[in-house]
């Protein structure tokens, strides 16, 4: 248990110490007007308080990533916690902060624009396509998981499964998976379709309306559910460990020791830590999806001084959520083989449902699951919004009028519906690779900015090199790529990462004088009383 709280303490120290270092290297300018004021349009550029922006940012970036990813990563053992802590502080939070602040500095620009400015037009074209593909995949993936969980809750509460006790998680899961059972006069398949349609309708509304009309108003409620889920699961783990419960911290791996942090405990035995762990646990450590979401909140920030709290801080909070669920994965079942079997029987959502009901009882468990449902929904809606804005920026289409927004939104949702028919497991593999490849490019973009203005660029360059090697190796080794021999794939990944680094230093031009001119701008004072 002490190891778990030690990891959380390291994350918090990372915010206060390393986050401050990153902020000093970037050099904020509290005297420069932000896009929330200079480009205010009442739709996407709307000034909001930093507390509200932080909460929306957390909900935007979280998705099911910091829950499902760490549960899957727990199969590797404590090394998953090591990646969450180190990846979050030195890669993920730096990635999010630099993306957010560069967007603020560039009129709320999206990631493709930033990539084009600091790395060149060819990379911008590539990332424009990849970012939109990733966002559509996110939107589709984040429809399926909440719809399945809501269907399970509906069948549990209103189903005719014969008086199953909701305190018996295994019995509930079995009853909910019974295709012959009905609830409210509907079969499980019909209920799943209904929840999918409801979520898609919400996506459409949230994508088209001004950001402060829906997202800015209902997210505080969603945030309360998220906090209840996170605190509740941590309380359940601690109380069971200290009390008479059958679950103890890291019971699935017979306790925690230093040597286990560097061991591969995967039950399957043929899944290497490098690079698979880095692409299994994304949200909670490092995620390219965040680069598509962060500019949305950069357009609402009221001052550059708020950046570390909003962008770096939200990522640290997500890392804590990831640690909680990683600990659940390594504690709830008798061993990692049982965890693997549970995932195989019902995906990570089964682990979420079983553990929530066990730790928090019937009512508390349902609320905890609702907190998990909130995460993908609040990421999926902003995924489609971000895709709309990236396309609009690329084609230079204004988005003040509803009709112009519909021209982009309707084709996006049609494509999303078609893609949703593809097998979920196949979608998830492509999503994982696309996600971390976008993260890699964003890290190189931030490194390009720092290198151009003669700042200490290694805070972004080093994680960019590591992620380049991981993404190249994954593409060479995994079946969605070339399916090559593992050792050969590692050599290819390292070789291509070296070539990428050489190209970076050859083609990114440096300014003669150190420092970003925007850091010296002094604008007239802004009335900060207009907070949403």
From TrEMBL:
InterPro entries on file: CstA, CstA_N
GO CC terms in record: plasma membrane
Keywords: Cell membrane, Membrane, Transmembrane, Transmembrane helix
Residues covered by the CstA N-terminal domain: 4-144, 179-326
Transmembrane segments: 80-104, 125-145, 192-211, 218-238, 271-289, 309-333, 357-378, 406-427, 433-451, 458-477, 489-508
Membrane topology: Multi-pass membrane protein
Localization terms from the record: Cell membrane
Single GO BP term: cellular response to starvation
Major localisation: membrane
Keyword Membrane in record: yes
Similarity field: Belongs to the peptide transporter carbon starvation (CstA) (TC 2.A.114) family.
PANTHER family the record matches: CARBON STARVATION, INNER MEMBRANE PEPTIDE TRANSPORTER
Record's protein name: Inner membrane protein YjiY
């Amino acid at each position: 248990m002490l190891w778990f709280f030690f990891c959380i303490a390291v994350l918090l120290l990372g915010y206060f110490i390393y986050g401050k270092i990153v902020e000093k290297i970037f050099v904020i300018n509290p005297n420069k007007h932000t896009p929330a004021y200079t480009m205010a349009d009442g739709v996407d550029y709307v000034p909001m308080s930093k507390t509200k922006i932080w909460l929306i940012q957390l909900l935007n970036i979280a998705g099911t990533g910091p829950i499902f990813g760490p549960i899957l990563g727990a199969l590797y053992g404590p090394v998953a916690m090591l990646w969450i802590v180190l990846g979050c502080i030195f890669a993920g939070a730096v990635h999010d902060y630099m993306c957010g602040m560069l967007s603020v500095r560039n009129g709320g620009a999206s990631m493709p624009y930033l990539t084009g400015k600091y790395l060149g037009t060819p990379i911008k074209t590539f990332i424009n396509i990849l970012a939109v593909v990733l966002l559509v995949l996110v939107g589709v993936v984040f429809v399926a998981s909440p719809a399945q969980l809501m269907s399970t809750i509906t069948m549990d509460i209103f189903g005719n499964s014969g008086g199953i006790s909701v305190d018996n998680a295994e019995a509930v899961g079995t009853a909910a998976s019974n295709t012959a059972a009905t609830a409210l006069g509907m079969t499980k398949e019909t209920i799943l379709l209904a929840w999918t349609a409801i979520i898609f309708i919400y996506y459409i509304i949230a994508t088209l309306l001004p950001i402060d009309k829906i997202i800015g108003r209902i997210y505080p409620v969603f945030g309360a559910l998220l906090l209840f889920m996170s605190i509740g699961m941590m309380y359940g783990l601690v109380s069971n460990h200290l009390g008479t419960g059958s679950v103890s911290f890291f019971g699935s791996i017979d306790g925690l020791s230093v040597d286990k942090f560097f061991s591969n405990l995967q039950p399957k035995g043929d899944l290497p830590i490098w690079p698979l762990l880095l692409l299994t646990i994304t949200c909670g450590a490092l995620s390219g999806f965040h680069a598509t979401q962060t500019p949305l909140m950069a357009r609402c920030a009221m001052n550059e001084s708020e950046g570390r709290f909003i962008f770096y801080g939200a990522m640290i909070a997500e890392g804590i959520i990831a640690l909680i669920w990683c600990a659940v994965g390594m504690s709830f079942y008798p061993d990692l083989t049982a965890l693997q079997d549970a995932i195989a029987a019902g995906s990570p959502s089964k682990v979420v449902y079983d553990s929530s009901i066990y730790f928090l009882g019937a009512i508390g468990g349902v609320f905890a699951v609702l907190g998990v449902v909130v995460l993908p929904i609040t990421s999926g809606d902003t995924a489609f919004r971000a895709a709309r804005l990236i396309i609009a920026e690329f084609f230079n289409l204004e988005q003040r009028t509803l009709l112009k927004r519909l021209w982009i939104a309707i084709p996006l949702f049609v494509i999303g519906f078609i893609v949703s028919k593809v097998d979920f497991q196949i979608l998830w593999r492509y999503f994982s690779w696309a996600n971390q490849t976008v993260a890699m490019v964003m890290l190189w973009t931030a490194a390009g900015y720092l290198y151009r203005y003669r700042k200490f660029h290694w805070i972004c360059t080093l994680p960019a090199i590591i992620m380049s090697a991981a993404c190249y190796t994954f593409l060479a080794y995994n079946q969605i790529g070339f399916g090559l021999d593992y050792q050969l794939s590692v050599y290819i990944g390292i070789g291509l990462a070296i070539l990428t680094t050489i190209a970076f230093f050859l083609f990114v031009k440096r300014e003669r004088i150190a420092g970003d001119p925007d850091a010296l701008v002094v604008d007239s004072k802004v009335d900060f009383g207009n907070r949403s």
